[in-house]
């Protein structure tokens, strides 16, 4: 069966996120009020052929560890639909 | 109150996603089987000060339209926690 797996990769909380800071500046220049913090990461959507949802998740986990996320700077979350 | 709002920006389904294709090639080179398609987008996490969750969502919607997503190439989804 084919599962749709989402991997969300975000910069670690303790690290600065200059891209997010730039977007926050841009929003303020556009006159948007109330945005206190912005952090920007990646969202990877994969179609995975696997026997079970757990197998699909295991494949995504390996992909995240080996290629998608840099554990020094990023954390990831995996969700299977 | 401060709401955490996630904006997921993904390339439109009908468009090619060269970054996703490159990652798919990388996964195959790493020996990971079963990944049929990969698409890569952005995930923007914002802390928004607003009176209600709907207000926070409206601010995020405006931010997405004006700055975060390019409607010619991308679609977005907003979720408020």
TrEMBL record, chains A, B:
Q: What is this protein called?
A: Phosphoribosylformylglycinamidine synthase subunit PurS
Quick check: keyword Iron-sulfur in the entry? Answer: no
Q: Which Pfam family, any one, appears in the UniProt record?
A: PurS
Q: How does it assemble?
A: Part of the FGAM synthase complex composed of 1 PurL, 1 PurQ and 2 PurS subunits.
Any one biological process term the GO annotation gives: 'de novo' IMP biosynthetic process
- Highest taxon in the source lineage: Bacteria
| Stretches of the chain forming a coiled coil according to its record | none
The entry's keywords: ATP-binding, Cytoplasm, Ligase, Nucleotide-binding, Purine biosynthesis
**Would you identify the family this protein belongs to, as annotated?**
Belongs to the PurS family.
Top-level EC class? ligase
Function according to Swiss-Prot or TrEMBL: Part of the phosphoribosylformylglycinamidine synthase complex involved in the purines biosynthetic pathway. Catalyzes the ATP-dependent conversion of formylglycinamide ribonucleotide (FGAR) and glutamine to yield formylglycinamidine ribonucleotide (FGAM) and glutamate. The FGAM synthase complex is composed of three subunits. PurQ produces an ammonia molecule by converting glutamine to glutamate. PurL transfers the ammonia molecule to FGAR to form FGAM in an ATP-dependent manner.
Main localization category: cytoplasm
The pathway it acts in is:
Purine metabolism; IMP biosynthesis via de novo pathway; 5-amino-1-(5-phospho-D-ribosyl)imidazole from N(2)-formyl-N(1)-(5-phospho-D-ribosyl)glycinamide: step 1/2
Cellular location(s): Cytoplasm
Question: What does the record give as the reaction this protein catalyses?
Answer: N(2)-formyl-N(1)-(5-phospho-beta-D-ribosyl)glycinamide + L-glutamine + ATP + H2O = 2-formamido-N(1)-(5-O-phospho-beta-D-ribosyl)acetamidine + L-glutamate + ADP + phosphate + H(+)
Q: Which Gene3D superfamilies match?
A: Phosphoribosylformylglycinamidine synthase subunit PurS (3.30.1280.10)
* The EC number(s) this enzyme carries: 6.3.5.3
Gene (name only): purS
Task: List cellular component terms (GO).
Answer: cytoplasm
GO terms (molecular function) for this protein are: ATP binding; phosphoribosylformylglycinamidine synthase activity
Please give the organism: Lacibacter sediminis
